[in-house]
Design goal:
Elements lengths: L1 H34 L9 E4 L2 E4 L5 E4 L46 H18 L3 H19 L4 H16 L8 H15 L6 H7 L4 H15 L12 H7 L4 H16 L8 H15 L6 H8 L3 H12 L3
Antiparallel strand pairs: 1-2, 2-3
Protein name: Transcription initiation factor IIB
Function: Stabilizes TBP binding to an archaeal box-A promoter. Also responsible for recruiting RNA polymerase II to the pre-initiation complex (DNA-TBP-TFIIB).
Family: Belongs to the TFIIB family.
């Protein structure tokens, strides 16, 4: 009889424990349901693109959720090696940067080092198998060297490489210098991006002469229809003013003189670089700034006579 009483007590305690567990689970489910429900229509919500959105009414319940998971994703189901990135694609490589390279190391010696050297040679030959690719590699290398020497941004480099690719596709390279095309492409890229660089400055760093540059530029302008017009003297004012250490008022006055020179036809048929330097010199004289004709001529790479002629035309009748 006492054994039956003990059995009933145990069953009662077990029933109470199961009831408590059921109550706790129900409370937890109710709490989770309240957190996952829409405050407007009580619909279910789900997370999409760092936002908690109601599936019924479309209300954005919460935004800018923080993902506490790892930043990488494993595409091959191999969690031991989460690497999946490589070098970015670039226009400054003949193959857009998709190829691989065999590097050089001093840690290998003897027969293995000679074998790697032969593999490197064969690998390079396989990547550059045609004359077209060799020309492109050489020109792209020259463009990268030029943009680096002129301290130009990467967008200028990529634009210049795209221009060379277009010129090669139109068969404009035959009978002309690759160095000249590289120089012309960098100059045109500067002009299209409103970066003030003169032909003399680009040719001074290039391996091409000004005649080779002009031949390549004329061919591209004729066949490709380059989207550039005559250079404006105003493009060179900020750089010249910075090199001459002029104040803002002098630069502003020089800009007004440039507008006047263009309107009155003083700038017609003249080197825009010389016109910009002459306007800056004239503005400095009017603002009592210490700038000489020789200093203005040096920054523009022109002669003082060029500065003097434009200065006389600007001050004539004043």
């Amino acid at each position: 009889m006492s054994q039956a009483r003990s059995t009933r007590v145990s069953s009662h305690r077990s029933g109470n424990a199961r009831a408590d567990e059921t109550t706790d689970a129900a409370d937890e489910t109710e709490t989770m349901d309240e957190a996952d429900r829409c405050p407007e229509c009580s619909g279910r919500t789900r997370i999409e693109s760092a936002e908690r959105v109601c599936t019924d009414c479309g209300l954005v319940v919460d935004a800018d959720l923080i993902d506490h998971g790892p930043e990488w994703r494993s595409f091959d189901d191999d969690d031991t090696n989460p690497k999946r990135t490589g070098a970015p694609l670039t226009r400054s490589r003949h193959d857009r940067g998709l190829s691989t390279e065999i590097g050089q190391s001093t840690r290998v010696k003897g027969r293995k080092r000679r074998r790697l050297s032969r593999m490197r040679t064969q690998h390079n030959r396989a990547q550059i198998s045609t004359k077209r690719d060799r020309n492109k590699v050489y020109a792209y290398t020259e463009i990268r060297r030029l943009t680096g020497a002129l301290e130009l941004p990467n967008n200028i480099r990529d634009t210049a490489c795209t221009l060379f690719d277009s010129a090669q596709s139109e068969s404009l390279l035959r009978g002309r210098s690759l160095e000249g095309f590289a120089c012309a492409c960098v100059y045109v890229a500067c002009r299209t991006a409103d970066v003030a660089r003169t032909v003399g400055e680009v040719c001074a760093e290039a391996k091409a002469t000004e005649d080779e540059h002009q031949a390549a530029f004329d061919a591209m302008n004729r066949e490709l229809g380059l989207p550039i017009g005559p250079a404006s003297p105003a493009e060179y004012l900020p750089r010249f003013a910075s090199e001459l250490d002029c104040e803002q008022g002098v630069e502003q006055r020089a800009r007004e003189l440039v507008d006047r020179a263009v309107e009155e036809g003083i700038a017609n048929g003249r080197n825009p670089v010389g016109v910009a330097a002459a306007c800056l010199y004239t503005a400095a004289r009017q603002c009592s700034a210490d700038v000489t004709q020789q200093e203005a001529a040096d920054v523009a790479d022109v002669t003082p006579v060029t500065i003097r002629r434009t200065y006389v035309d600007l001050t004539d009748g004043e």
